[in-house]
Amino acid sequence: MPSTRFNLNTGGDFRVKGRFHRITNSTDPASIQHLILYPRTFIPLLPDELEEVSAIHTTSPIFSPRILAPKRPAAYAIHIRMLLAYPNLCRTRTILAASLEQLIRYDLLGMEDGCCPNIEDEDEYWDARYPELAAKAIATLRQWKFEGAWADGEDWIGDALAAVINGTGSMEHLSLAKYG
């Protein structure tokens, strides 16, 4: 996809640095899907942060290829490393912050349902469950720290994520946790 001011303003570096490969035949703009490949230099991933896993896009485990994927703690570290590389109020940073927030909600807090069917007050439901979910998430972050899951000099990432989860920190100030 050619670099344009519109692409930069709407998708930041995710639109500009990615190489888009169309994977659908549809001509309906809402149905077109792309596989986007980024240069290795765009995503700050260390080799020991990868693990070999089975691809889940096939139905047979016999034909399921093995691929390298980031370990769970690495997914958070990558987001934060990238956040630190971009200035505040930058479109790419905004996208990264939203992506990190979703990752925290669905992975660490276990809010994969996203909504609560047959519940009148969804906020009340999540408010009641949040302390338990947050405690489990913070325990996971502590376990990762104990296991040495963070790269050298990045132990602060787990602490910063825990602060966001327990409400003493915020997504906007996450990158400042390294220095504060």
Largest sheet: 2 strands, antiparallel
Strand content: 5-15%
Number of helices: 5
Q: CA-to-CA gap between the ends? A: 40 Å
Helix content percent band: 40-55%
Element-level helix/strand string: HEEEEHHHH
Gyration radius from CA atoms, angstroms: 19 Å
Secondary-structure content class: mainly alpha
C-alpha geometry: globular
- Number of DSSP strands? 4
Unreliable stretches: none
Write out the strand line-up for the largest beta sheet, numbering strands in chain order: 1-2
The total number of structural domains is 2
Task: Give average pLDDT, whole number.
Answer: 80
Structure, described:
The protein is mainly α. It has two domains: 1-42, no CATH class; 73-178, no CATH class. It has five helices and four strands. The protein has helices at 5-16, 72-85, 91-108, 122-147, 156-166; strands at 19-22, 34-37, 50-54, 66-70. The strands form two sheets. A two-stranded antiparallel ribbon has the order 1-2. The chain has a two-stranded antiparallel sheet with strand order 3-4. The longest helix is centred in the last third of the chain and has 26 residues, at 122-147. The protein is globular. The N and C termini lie far apart (40 Å).
